Amino acid sequence: MKFLFSQKILPSRPHANRKRKSKKGAMTLISVFLYFIFSSLGLSMLYLSQIYLKISAYKKNSIILDYASENGIKLAFNHLLGLLSQTGSPSLLSPLETDELKNDTRNKGLKIVKKLLGEKIPLQHSQNWENLGWESTTNFSFEKIEEKEDYFIASYKATINSEGKIKNFKHKKESSLEALLGVSAGNLPLPYIPLLLDKKVKEDKKENFSEENKITFLPSEKNPIPPQISFSEGGLIPDDADSQLQKALKIKFFFPQNISTPLLRVALGLEKTNEPVPDGVYLIKDNLGLGGIFVQGGLDEMILAIDGDFQVVSFLAEQGLWILKYNPYKIKTTFLTPKETFDYDLIPMGIILVNGEIRSLGGGEMDPSGKPILVTEEEIPSILRGINLTIISSDKVTLTSHLIHQGVKWVDRVPYIKDSNSQLNIFATGKEFFGNKEKEGKIIVYNNSPAEIKIQASLTASGKGFSIEGEKKTVHILGSLQTSDYSSNKNSLNFTYEKRLPAVDSSAQNAPQTAKPVLCFSFFKILEWKEF
Q: In the chain, fewer beta carbons within 10 Å around the N or the C end?
């Protein structure tokens, strides 16, 4: 029996076909989505690249503008320094010109600055390089005036404004620099002039003077303008010490010749007679206090030393030994003479007048017996911190050892001033104090002094000038030097100008002053740099 079988018909799968169709659509969507994402990222990167390029270009231009503005400051600053460097030598003024400049300065005028710089104010400069340009203007504004008896010091703020620009770029950059300028006029203290040769010198000799005399100027952090030699036609250095005589002797006179012998003896504490003043050392005193020291006759040796908080000055002469010890902090003074000792609750005026020659002047130390001894080789401080001392001789002064102040260290021949606020002035007049008899008036560095002698002082020689004796010697001066003549004898001079701001400094109050009114650049100090 045959069975009948029916052929099985498989059902169709419409959902499977739909699934395959849906997969094809998803891939398209994914591809489109990915294309959209990558296109967006690409466009974004292109856009960001353009922004970055613009920012980079702006940053680059901003930096270039900084350079351009800075160049404008440097251009004006260097020009100003050049003008001030050319004014190193003091220029003579008449009394009328001095009064006119003082009155204009009192009224906050700028005549004294114009006369000093020799150019119209404001100073203007401009410069271009490729597509860059910069412009600057230097102006001055009055700050204050310090009036002394015979001179004045005017302070002005110098402001340099600079603008940097780039061609076809609308933005600009502005900067400014502020500095303080000091100008002095009148009969100035000579320590305000770094190195003065008060002698007529031919122009060709001026250019080679430093090289021929082995003079080296060491830089100073306080002075952006390096010191230089000033030359005059002569007659700037005085040949008398009249003002110091009046202060030290505590008497008033128009001319020293007007002082009679009896009057001088009374001032020195001697009996009022017509007998000549005996050679010796006299401490001036009256009812108002102590004056200076007056020495009649020459000295074999003068030694400066420090004993604790006391400044010590010893005077050795044929008649004996005198020792002056005083403490400016405790207001105590001891004066030892060959015959007796005097103690005072006062301190003397810092003026020592020697009517004669000082055959040896140097620094020393105290020996066990309490007497100063000269020290030639060892570099020890001999001028107490805060001391202001002026030593004046009518004749020759011979420097035999170091004269170093407390608070000053010399490292590799370079002086470093930490907290030194003392001052030493040494002046050889070349003429007797009472009369017109001429003397040698010379300052000499002794031939047997240390080969590397260090002197911190303002030295002024009116007579036969300044001379370095011996061979293969190097003199280091921290201070100033004014001389009627200069003789190096093939020795070297290393010079560092110590300059404090005169407007706030009284260290030169007993120093000699110029015999004629002069106009002189006084100080220059950078205050602040600003960016806008």
A: N
